[in-house]
Design brief:
Layout (H helix, E strand, L loop, with lengths): L11 H10 L8 E7 L2 H8 L1 H17 L3 E8 L2 E6 L5 H18 L8 E7 L8 H18 L3 E2 L2 H14 L11 E10 L5 E12 L3 E3 L1 H10 L3 H21 L4 E6 L1 H6 L1 H16 L3 E6 L8 H13 L3 E7 L6 H5 L5 E4 L9 H18 L2 E4 L5 H10 L3 E3 L19
Parallel strand pairs: 4-5, 7-9, 9-10, 10-11, 11-12, 12-13, 13-14
Antiparallel strand pairs: 1-3, 1-4, 2-3, 6-7, 6-14, 7-8
Length: 414
């Protein structure tokens, strides 16, 4: 296909990779790709001639850019770039972004060029060849397309894309991925240190990816609209675990729940209806923590979902309070039994400021009629501060690390 098409330009990609192969084991290289993501729309609305004029101007500016060793247009909408120097990749990528912005503010065209920009720095002592580095470069470009920001490929980007690929294969009825399991972190009374309950925490020790951070796989699951699966699996894990937790002395179990699940997952609510009566019989409380990592526009659905859980006999907690992720007006309108003050409030350098922030959280909880759980209590000083401001509960490693019930023997010794 020629450069007038939307596909690859014959030989262009191979030419770029050949140039990389000749140098990749001699020196570190900075490779960048620029994808013009709205060119098909530009062609429909303004014509092929305007499209090509804009692309030609971008090509010219990229070629003339300081620090560029090679620019190859590998398709109608994609440029591959090799920089002269790999020592400052972030600066170089920002310069590419600035160049595109310069074209957009010039007023030469009646449209804006929208781009994704990905980069990777090769390692000359690595066994990887050009096509391997190009694959990592494509991962960064894919992520940039999703985030709208330039992305530099690194181990985290590669891992995130592998996680995305594995999760994307899941669907309703799927079992948790191999290595995904749940642990239970103690929540204790501040005044007496006695056990109150546990929070169920999802962990993933993947056989192929290693230990995957919840911050990574939960966010990706939300992006893929699959976080409902994790919420459902968590509920099933709690269903299996709560008899053992009762034996260990707990009075409550807390589960994180996404706003996505509250908005549209009827299967989840059916599972709650099956579980709650048994938990109540064991004189156990079920607490749902609203995570703030996802946002739904329809606050009516959110409020109705939380109210529905409360009517069923569950309690509601607002997680990570104090991180600024959710406005006070939204939180104050939600049914709330517990406010969990984020552990970052304990890490403020000035003790008086830390105390003041905790007191603000306490005041808010009082206004909405909720009790307070201070998170990430790891030292006696943290506990003293939680006690000083009047918090009822504390959660953190001071009281022990999360319990993995797979390693805890039952009362019968099994």
């Amino acid at each position: 296909m020629t450069s007038d098409g939307v596909g690859a330009i014959p030989g262009a990609q191979q030419k770029f990779l050949s140039g990389v192969d000749a140098l990749v084991h001699k020196q570190d290289l900075l490779l960048v790709k620029v994808l013009l993501i709205n060119i098909p729309i530009v062609e429909v609305e303004f014509g092929r001639e305007q499209r090509e004029l804009a692309i030609s101007e971008l090509s010219k500016k990229l070629t003339e850019m300081v620090g560029v060793a090679e620019v190859i247009r590998v398709s109608a909408v994609l440029f591959s770039i090799r920089a002269l120097d790999a020592s400052n990749p972030i600066y170089f990528i920002q310069q590419v972004k600035a160049l595109v912005a310069e074209i957009n503010v010039s007023g030469h065209f009646r449209f804006l060029l929208e781009t994704s920009i990905g980069g990777v720095v090769t390692e000359h002592d690595s066994e990887l060849i050009a096509k391997d580095w190009d694959a990592r470069l494509n991962l960064a470009l894919m992520k940039s397309t999703r985030t709208g920001l330039p992305e530099l490929s690194d181990v985290q980007v590669a891992t995130s894309e592998q996680v995305r690929h594995e999760l994307a294969r899941l669907g309703p009825g799927s079992a948790p991925p191999e290595g995904m399991h749940w642990v239970f972190q103690p929540i204790n009374y501040v005044a007496t240190r006695e056990l109150f309950g546990y929070e169920a925490l999802c962990r993933w020790q993947s056989p192929t990816l290693g230990s995957v951070s919840p911050e990574v796989f939960i966010q990706i699951a939300e992006d893929l609209n699959l976080v409902q699966l994790i919420d459902f699996w968590t509920l099933k894990a709690v269903e299996a675990a709560y008899p053992r937790l009762v034996e260990l002395g707990g009075q409550a179990i807390s589960i994180n729940i996404s706003a996505q699940t509250l908005g549209n997952d009827h299967e989840f609510f059916s599972a709650v209806d099956r579980l709650l009566p048994r938990i109540k019989e064991a004189h156990f409380s079920l607490i749902f923590e609203l995570t703030e990592t996802s946002v739904i526009e329809n606050q009516i659905d959110l409020t109705m979902g939380l109210t529905g859980l409360r009517k069923r006999g569950a309690k509601i907690a607002i997680d990570d309070f104090g991180t600024g992720k959710t406005s006070l007006s939204i939180i104050s309108s939600l049914p709330t039994d517990f406010v969990k003050l984020d552990g970052s409030l304990l890490q403020v350098e000035r003790p008086d400021l830390s105390k003041g922030l905790l007191e603000l959280g306490m005041k808010f909880a009082q206004l909405v009629g909720a009790e307070v759980i201070v998170e990430k209590v790891e030292t006696e000083a943290d506990l003293d501060l939680a006690k000083e401001v009047g918090a009822t509960f504390a959660q953190g490693w001071l009281f022990g690390q999360p319990i993995d019930l797979r390693t805890v023997p039952t009362a019968e010794g099994i």
